[in-house]
Design a protein that fits this description.
Layout (H helix, E strand, L loop, with lengths): L2 H22 L4 E7 L4 E7 L4 E7 L6 H5 L4 H18 L5 E4 L8 H12 L4
Parallel strand pairs: 1-4
Antiparallel strand pairs: 1-2, 2-3
Helix pairs in contact: 3-4
Length: 123
């Protein structure tokens, strides 16, 4: 098995494992993240209705000024987390289930989660 195929297989295995935990708590809203090499995005999704309730990302125009002043991608992820939590609090959301979408809980993913917690959401 070549290296690319092995990495993809292990990523899908991690993703499915985290999806199983989220599926058991389907009555709560889901905080789903996506991380690319350049950007990080997060959404709060209502799985019952299949709609996105709130979203934030490094390419949002509303937080571009704050992101421009950040020194690293980890700091940008924390800013995105706080912005998402602000939107959720406005919509009276306090509890969510964290779906890391197969990405390891380390670095930018961890910074985003801590930013959301600092913003006032619980998971």
């Amino acid at each position: 098995m070549n290296e690319v195929k092995r990495k993809r297989t292990s990523y899908l295995r991690r993703r499915n494992r985290s999806k199983g935990i989220v599926g058991k708590n389907s009555d709560k809203l889901r905080l789903c993240i996506y991380r690319s090499n350049r950007h990080i995005e997060a959404q709060i999704i209502d799985d019952k209705d299949g709609k996105t309730v709130a979203s934030a990302g490094t390419n949002n125009k509303s937080i571009k000024a704050e992101i421009a002043s950040a020194n690293s991608k980890v700091e940008c992820a924390g800013i995105v987390g706080k912005a998402l939590a602000k939107q959720a609090i406005k919509k009276k959301i306090s509890k969510v289930v964290f779906d890391r979408n197969g990405f390891p809980y380390h670095g930018r993913v961890k910074a985003l989660a801590e930013g959301v917690r600092e913003g006032g959401l619980n998971f």
